[in-house]
Automatic annotation (TrEMBL):
Species of origin: Candidatus Sysuiplasma superficiale
Record-given protein name: Class I SAM-dependent methyltransferase family protein
Keyword S-adenosyl-L-methionine tagged: yes
Any one GO cellular component localisation term in the record: cytoplasm
PANTHER family given in the database record: TRNA (GUANINE(37)-N1)-METHYLTRANSFERASE, TRNA METHYLTRANSFERASE
Pfam entry (one): TRM5-TYW2_MTfase
């Protein structure tokens, strides 16, 4: 079962376990997980803070203890046809659960929501997720169980984000990717985040580029408002956030890195991003691609861009059975000088 956890070294394991029990956040229905020289303790929610024990907040798969139902579908008794189309995955964003429900199950959505709340007792609401739409990339959600309210808090590797699941877009499935990308950032980098949302990439990167600066843009006014608030919450003073359409950006080649996390709309922005990138700089570019055509897409992208090359391609997460979100690392190269006769 995918759940929140606290990673701590083996030598501090017992002390951490007692402290989490004292805080009342231990998830006793799941088993503690061992990973090398550390353990991951499942929790119902991330604790507000601690001073004495060095630990890391994360998400991980845990094994359920005997007698605990970890799959909400086991709590439902529908006919076989309906059972076969019950959603097997869903997003957990803070205390909100977002689940896509087939039209055939709309009459059963309250029962589905209640079953999800029974399994995920830290959550307070379940919403039917009808997808993302519009220039502001907002989710169409409808409350089906719980107390309601679309604002929540999310914690990723020690950073805290406030957001609204209806008015802003946020994907918990990119947490590991944000950490991975930020680990490649130099302290003095000047970074542009073209589609920043509520700021998860922005803040991860700003923490690493502490001698540099991150300029962040988004067209959604709610997202920019949360981004600015999240920058303050996380103590980031090197972030400059603006509400602006990225098609209107017009900087010179001043940036060492450009982040383009708009998987279904980024292709038309690549040339603009390259024009704002300094020589040797990189673009962390994301695109939704069919798995079978990813190599040809990388070749196509490489052929279209000028004075740049695709250095690496990696699959970040699945989107469907045959497609995924891919990360393309694009590096700007120096223009070739003409040889003299």
């Amino acid at each position: 079962m995918y759940n929140k956890g606290i990673r701590v070294s083996l030598r501090l394991a017992e002390k951490a376990r007692r402290e989490l029990n004292r805080m009342g956040v231990s998830e006793d229905r799941l088993k503690i997980r061992r990973e090398g020289d550390s353990i991951i303790i499942p929790v119902t929610e991330f604790p507000d803070g601690h001073d004495e024990i060095e630990w890391e907040e994360c998400f991980a798969e845990f094994e359920a203890r005997r007698g605990f139902v970890s799959d909400y579908r086991k709590l439902l008794e529908f006919d076989p046809a309906k059972m076969s189309i019950l959603p097997s995955s869903y997003d957990i964003i803070g205390k909100k659960i977002l689940v896509k429900i087939p039209a055939e199950l709309r009459k059963e959505e309250r029962n589905i929501g209640e079953a999800l709340l029974e399994v995920h007792r830290f959550a307070d609401s379940v919403f039917r997720d009808d997808g993302v739409s519009g220039a502001h990339r907002t989710r169409n959600v409808e409350l089906i169980a719980g107390r309601g309210g679309t604002e929540t808090w999310v914690t990723e590797y020690g950073f805290r984000f406030r957001l609204d699941v209806r008015r802003t877009f946020y994907s918990p499935r990119l947490a590991v990717e944000r950490k991975r990308v930020s680990s490649t950032v130099r302290p003095d980098e000047h970074v542009l985040d073209m589609f920043a949302g509520v700021g998860p990439f922005t803040i991860f990167v700003a923490a690493k580029a502490y001698r540099g600066k991150v300029m962040a843009f988004d067209i959604n006014p709610y997202a920019v408002s949360y981004l600015r608030e999240n920058a303050v919450i996380n103590g980031m003073t090197n972030i400059d956030a603006h509400m602006k359409d990225s098609t209107l950006l017009d900087f010179g080649p001043d940036f060492d890195r450009v982040i383009m996390n708009l998987p279904r709309g980024s292709p038309s922005f690549v040339d603009k991003a390259l024009s704002m990138l300094s020589e040797g700089g990189v673009i962390d570019y994301y695109e939704l691609v069919d798995d079978i055509s990813v190599n040809s897409r990388a070749e196509e992208l490489g052929n279209k861009i000028v004075h740049a090359r695709v250095e690496a391609v990696r699959r970040v997460k699945s989107y469907s059975a045959s497609s995924g979100i891919y990360h393309f690392l694009i590096r700007k190269t120096a223009p070739r000088s003409r040889s003299r006769a």
